[in-house]
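Researcher: Here's the sequence for the chain we discussed earlier.
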Amino acid sequence: MKKLSETLSELNINCSFPIKIKDTDGNQTYFERSDGYWFKREYDADGNTTYYENSDGKWYKREYDVDGNTTYFEDSNGTWSKYEYDVDSKETYYEDSDGIKKGTPRSIKTCEGKIVEVDGVKYELKAL
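Model: Thanks. This is the structure I predict for it:
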């Protein structure tokens, strides 16, 4: 990525360091020092950092659920992790790029034994 200071220089716009840019919500989206170091960040609507990248070539991505819990993480080292949570935001499943798995993913869980009511009649679910 081209540094902002280079783009400003090409446009004959003088700037002073450090360069700091914030979005309308006050989140810092860009920072650059005079020694050439820079970073940029992207945020979701809730202010959670969804992407980070810096001049050293490091980056990471994050995804979140509606409660702000991290559901996915990936970085420039090739590391990734997935998370699932219950309604109380307690972690129920974890899996990562090292092959570690804890808990039971939702995709494997069944509704076996659950009771549902339809038109006043109760039914017990059974997996086939």
